[in-house]
Amino acid sequence: MKFFQSMAVAANLLASGLAIEIRFHDTNNCIGGYVYCPTINPNHCCLGPGSMSTYFAWIPREWSIDTRVFEGKVCSGVSRTQRSGSRDAICMGAEWELIQSARYDFVGKKRGETSDGNTGDEECQKPSGVVFADGAHYQFDAMTESQVVEMFLIDL
Fold first, then answer.
1. Distance (Å, rounded) from C-alpha 8 to C-alpha 127?
2. C-beta separation of 33 from 132 below 8 A
3. What distances in angstroms separate CA 144 from CA 93, 126, 135, 139, one per listed residue?
4. Domain annotation covers residue 11
5. Strand-strand pairing, 46-51 and 34-40
6. Which positions carry the signal peptide feature in this UniProt record (predicted)?
7. What is the number of structural domains in the chain?
8. In this predicted model, what pLDDT tens digit does every residue of 11-45 receive, in sequence order?
9. Does 63 fall in a domain?
10. Which residues, 6+ apart, have CB-to-CB distance to 108 below 8 Å?
11. Exposed e or buried b for every residue in 111-121, given b needs 16+ CB within 10 A?
12. Which H/E stretch holds residue 51?
């Protein structure tokens, strides 16, 4: 019995390290600087600054997920959806409106259902930092919200 409990704990730890990163770019091809939400879980909304493209990074190839970008700030007003199809990354460009938020869901789950059975109705996760095209990196948690807005022109 303890063996199975140990295996379950190990599986949960492994799974927690496999979360996807969502990046919001100011170019239409997911190149250059970006604002990001690291290690975001399925069906959790990531709030963006209004971007030209969104990049889903670190997708485990064995996962079958639908990536979604939204014109609304709280993962509303779907702009585009794309299935992972064994890819480890997906770039999705804006169509008519800037991308305001994004999330991913496992294929086959009911809408609003997460892997633990909860619905994803909680508040959108705000970006954790910014990476500039030259590689400079800033963490938002070390700044006040007004500093982030002023310095990076990002309205969170």
1. 31
2. yes
3. 30, 13, 22, 11
4. no
5. unpaired
6. 1-19
7. 1
8. 443 444 568 999 999 999 999 999 999 999 999 99
9. yes
10. 64
11. eebeeeeeebe
12. strand 46-51
Q: Label the pairing between strands 78-83 and 65-70.
A: antiparallel
Structure tokens at 150: 């002023």
Distances (CA, A) of 151 to 64, 97, 107, 127, 130: 38, 24, 38, 15, 11
Q: How far apart are the two ends of the chain, measured CA to CA in Å?
A: 47
Per-residue pLDDT reduced to its tens digit, 80-134: 899 999 999 999 998 888 999 999 999 986 555 544 433 445 578 989 999 999 9
User: Quick check: is 6 in a domain?
Assistant: no
Q: In Å, what is the CA distance from 11 to each residue of 16, 43, 104, 110?
A: 9, 20, 21, 23
Reduced to 3 states (helix: H, G, I; strand: E, B; else coil), residue 95 is: coil
Q: Which residue has the tokens 């007003």?
A: 77
Buried/exposed 2-38: b ≥16 CB within 10 Å, e otherwise? eeeeeeeeeeeeeeeeebbbbbbbbeeebeebbbbbb
